Structures are given as structure tokens and as C-alpha cells.
Amino acid sequence: MKSIKIKSTINFQKLFSMWILAFVLVLSIQAQRPAAPRVPRIVSPEISADNKVTFRLFSKEATSVILTGDWMAAGVSQPLVKNDTGLWTTTTAPLKPEFYNYYFTVNGVRAIDPSNPKILRDGSRYSSALFIPGTESDGYAIKDVPHGTVAKVWYNSTSLKLYRRMYVYTPAGYEDTSNKYPVLYLLHGGGGDEDQWTTLARATYIMDNLIAGGKAKPMIVVMTNGNANQTSAVTDWPDVTDKNISGSGGGMTEEFPNSIVKDVIPYVEKHYRVLANKENRAIAGLSMGALQTQITSVNNPGMFDYTGVFSIGIQTEFGDLTTRLTKAYDENLDKIKKSGYKVFFVGVGKDDFVYEGVQLLRKKLDEHSFKYIYRETSGGHTWANWRIYLSEFAPMLFK
Amino acid sequence: MKSIKIKSTINFQKLFSMWILAFVLVLSIQAQRPAAPRVPRIVSPEISADNKVTFRLFSKEATSVILTGDWMAAGVSQPLVKNDTGLWTTTTAPLKPEFYNYYFTVNGVRAIDPSNPKILRDGSRYSSALFIPGTESDGYAIKDVPHGTVAKVWYNSTSLKLYRRMYVYTPAGYEDTSNKYPVLYLLHGGGGDEDQWTTLARATYIMDNLIAGGKAKPMIVVMTNGNANQTSAVTDWPDVTDKNISGSGGGMTEEFPNSIVKDVIPYVEKHYRVLANKENRAIAGLSMGALQTQITSVNNPGMFDYTGVFSIGIQTEFGDLTTRLTKAYDENLDKIKKSGYKVFFVGVGKDDFVYEGVQLLRKKLDEHSFKYIYRETSGGHTWANWRIYLSEFAPMLFK
User: Fold this and answer.
1) Is the pTM above the cut of 0.80?
2) Contact B381/A27, CB-based, under 8 Å?
3) Could you tell me if A43 lies within 8 Å of chain B, comparing CB atoms?
4) Distance, CA of A249 to CA of A59 (rounded, Å)
5) Four-CA torsion B247, B248, B251, B253, nearest 10 degrees
6) In terms of Cα–Cα distance, which of B43, B42, B83 is closest to B60?
7) Could you report the per-residue pLDDT of B71-90, keeping only the tens digit for each?
């Protein structure tokens, strides 16, 4: 914008900037939103060249500010130190490139970092997001590549008797062709909902990057809500709770797996341009979603050429559900072999609490000479691992 | 689920529940997410039968907790009071049914309510959401009615030289017909982005309710990002900032209005089933978006039969931009009359700081004997008013 003089002494550009500032300020106030406490402009988090991260928070009144981040061991946290202006600061040791989350505890209250606009929800709890760029995190960085469309879609689940929501990712270019696409059904874990893969796992950015790099085929990715008694993520629950709504849960039965086959797949294959055959149908899930994946895939021979089981196996703790799953494996693995399949992927972290169950799953597959790909990573039941498994599984699909 | 006995003394249902609980807990811990401070289960906010609202927060360590809500006058806030267990509480006077937001200030730090999973973002600041049901807020309640699909769509803006994001709402039923639909282009205000109409204004739920009730025609609603130098909301900015990204702003020029005509409308009319004529094209915006709406509509006679100008007019403070807008009015109003149009809607609150500018706009329209609908509400530059204007404007469209 050019600076022009008006009424001889007024710099218009300056006036204009001031007006904009006033405008935004007044907007805030007039929108019945009292101004937040006046704090200096703070940068937090700040990543140094050697990947140390500095966190800052301003408060003269606070007497205790603690940082808790998911790079720390369970139960560990790190205090911030206050200087005489009221600025609280702490710096970490160098962190591995990764997508982390963290929060402050301010005089006993959990708080997101007010200086960081990127946040994450896990169930009903919010944290602030921290992305450390580097080779290890490059695959799920938000980049300047073509992005797919992410749609929040409502569908009727006749089998669950619920009007429900799911996310449908259509790859970049979907709208510009009349091509039909293969579909990956991607199931979240316990305590989560249909948001989880897109936020904590960055699934859509992983897919954007893999597809842009020619590493994965363009595909539709359907991310459902696996809580069989829930319409949607809590963020979109009706304001006035009615009978068609409930808390999370209801994911540890066959109900949701059945509804994938009866409601979700038919909806997707009717409403999107889909290659509707087993060669172009994949299913994968993490933790609770990996249990649902097994139930869905193994009970429906000839439906999926690709199955991804991330971080759960045949867990003895599930009692009757496990008995039925084991029976399904025994009855159907030969049928699946007969109908043909391409990839059965099993991934688990060395330190994962479900590790033994995953070994029981491997034993079961071996018993039936059922070929599968086994991927053992370091670490435990973590988003870091689920991002890795998706990043490795998706390139195997539909080839 | 039936309760069955296993190993004679174990109640399976109880075991199962415990396992689920352990599962979720272990998930939290193993996901390298240290547990939050152990706090009792708290209900906050709680709305009483007479619409008083009680807010609660637990902290033994805090010494000052203050509530700030957008129902309060600017600068006003309300302290919470601590009891001897560490529970902080305060109750408001009865509140009018409305969609509010609020936050706590805990020892000087702004914090969302940890007990409330519904939050709102305005720019880079987060608040907790509070919906008080009642006649006045019924139009934008989240209800058990058919919901449209809300898609986050990326498009190339040739004129702005940016790959950018917008939201596209397709009404319930869009996917089930081959019908073509009219389109409303809906523009956000200063400091906001493409999220704003869907979150703070609840535009998609307003449309769901109006359409389900037969009050508005099914239509596509396109919600753009009006900051001409921004790719998307900050939440989806690239992790590693590059040249194609910038802060908000760049909305107070003709650049974005030009890109609506050159890039947005062509994209939408190519990729969606659209009735692509002026009879089926509407544009509306709030505040900065209302300025952009005027610029777009008045500079393009014969493009829109419906124009909605919410809470801005001909503001003398905008200097040269206002001069050009005024000139456009003088040159084009007769052309618009000649080409034909249906509704030119102007809405403003009695206490709005842009009130005088809106009266100048009315004067200009009157000068040219240009028919318009004027709606004056109580209050100021508020989301409450913008929800009202959208709720009244949408039913006038495409009839």
C-alpha cells in the first residue's frame, strides 16, 4: 500500500494501520468480550537451532507454573521459573523432531499455553501443540503441497439407530476428475472420536504428503466415530441433551464393527466415486480401533484386501469378546486366504502394554500359516507410533 | 451387556468396566501424557432452571480465580470464591438464552474451563462455550435435525497467488440428489478467518435448522478466508513457515473482493452442482466482511440478486478505500437497479461503533432511490447480532 498524505500532515498509511488496530480492539470489546489481562507479547514455544524448546508464560500473580509435555516420562513435569517482571520461563533439553503436546499447570489449574494458537483435543481435555521439524517428523508436517478435502459428513446408522458423523478425506484432485478411488477405513482408539486421526495423528497431512510424493496412491480415507452409543465428537453434541446422545464408550462390542459393514461402507460407496471391491478396500485402526478392525476384517472374508492392526492384538483381558474374536480367526483365516488378500499388517511398540496380546495374535496367524507383516517399533502406546504405522501402511495399499 | 459369572466369583461386567477404565488410563499414561493433577469430578458450567449459571474450578493452590464472560459489560469480571476443599465457585444472575463464551483468569493467567469440552477460538485466543437454551437461542441450537456436510476445501487463488482454504457447507440431501443449488457466499470479520462463521456464529447449525424447518431454501454456503495474505486459519498453517504464509490482515483492500469474483465463485461453480446465475447467488458478511461484501456486490452489477451487509457501512475512517466504495455506489447503483436485484439487507446494532457509517450507507442508497431492507437491533458489534442477521437474511434468499 502506498503512503499518501492527506490534509497535509497525516500519514495515511499510519492512520490506516491505527484504524485497523482500533477496529480489531473495538471489535473485541464491543463483541462483549472483555479484554484479557494486559500482557507483553510473548513467544511460546520457541524452538532453538539445537531443538531445545523454551516455554514462556506471563503472570505476576502466579506462584507456581509447571510444564507437562508428552515427551516426558509419566509423572514427570518441569517447573517454570519467574523473573522479576512476572515472566515465567523454562527450556527443555534438545527434543527429537516429533509432534508433541503439552500444557501448563498454573497454581494447580491445567491451562493451555495462551501464546500458542495451535491446540489439540483428546477426549474432553485440551493441550497445546508443539511441532519440531526434522527428518523424523517430515512425513506429517503441514506442507505447501496439494491438500485433500476434509468433510464432516452425517449419515444414518440403521444398525446403531443413530444419526452419526464421520470424516471423509477425498484426495487432492478428486473433484477435478471422474475417477473412482479406493477407500481406507481408519478407526480411532478408546476415549477418542472421529476427530482423533485428523488432529492427534495428522492423518490427512500424512496422506497429502504421501500422495504428493508419489508414495501412496490417491485414496479416500473414512474416519468414523467408533463409540457405538455416540452421535459425534463431544464438540458437536446437541446443546440440549436428548436420548440420542451419550458419553463415549460402546466401542468394545461387535456393534460398531457390524455398522461399518451395514451402514458406513454402503453409505460411502453410494455417495462417493469408489472402487467398490475388496481389491480397493482397506481397514485399519489403532488400539480400540485395531480391535474393531480385527473384528470387522476377520468376520467378513472377501471384504478387505488390506488390514492394518495398530497396537492391539488378542487381549486375554477382553474375556468373551476375545473368545469370539479367537473363534472368528479359527473359522475364517482359511476363508480369507482362499478369497485372497494382499496385506495384513500388525504393528506394536516394544514397550506397549498390549505387547503380549499382539504376540498372541501373531501366534494365531502363524498357527494358520497366514502371512502378515509385523512391525515392531520402540516406545509404547503412542501417537508417534500410530503416525509411523499409518505412514508405512498407506504406501502398501492398492498396488 | 449381560452380566456373566466367570471363575465363579468374578462379575464380568464389573471386570469389563474396570478394564475399560484401566485401558483409557493406561492409554493416557502410555501415550507419554502425564496424568493431570488429580481433581474431583466437577460440573462446570451448570445451568439452573432459572438460567443462573454456576461455574466451578478446582485448585487448592490458586489464590485468585476470576470469571470473564461475554455477557458482562466491557472491563467487568466476577471472582470465584474458594471453599476449604479447594473448590472455587461463582453463580451468575439469570442469563438470557444465548450462545456465550467465557474464560477463567487463574492467578493472572487466562485459562479455558477444564471441565467444559466445548471451546471457541477467536483468532488466536480460546474461550469456553456456554449455550443457554430458550426461545431466543433456539434457532442456532445444535439439534437432532438433518445436518449438512461441512467441508474444508483448498483452492488456488490465481489473483492472490495463494493456495487457500475455505469451508463449503452443502445442505442435507445434496449428496442424494442431482439437483443444482443456489449459493450464499458468507464473509467473516476482522481478526477472524474461515472458521469464524461455523464456530462463533454457528452458521451451519442455523442453516440446518432453517432448512429443516422449511424456513430457508436448501443452499450451499461458502465461507472464505478474507485475509488476502493468509492461506488458512492459523490452526492449519504450515509447521515450518514459508513465504506463502503470513499473519491475518490484508482484508481491507479490494484484493480479496476481486478474488471472490475471479477465483472463489468460478471454483465453486465448477466443483459443485450450482445454479450459476445472479438469481441464485447471494453474498453477505459481517464487519470487515460486510465491507468486502459491499465492494464485491457494488462493483459487479448483475452478479448478485441478494446482498447482506451486517454491521458496517460507509465508514469515513477508511479514507481512500471509502472514497472508492462511494464512487462505486454512485456509478453502479443504477446499473444494479437496471439489471434487477431482489434483496439488499443492511443490519446494525443501535450501540454499534459503526452505526454512523451505516447511516451514511443508508443515505447513499436513499440518494439513488435504491430499495433496501434495514434491520436495527439492540446491542453492538456482536455475534448475537450476526446470528440474528443471518437467521433473518437466509430465509429471504432464492424465493
Assistant:
1) yes
2) yes
3) no
4) 39
5) -20
6) B83
7) 999 899 999 999 999 999 99
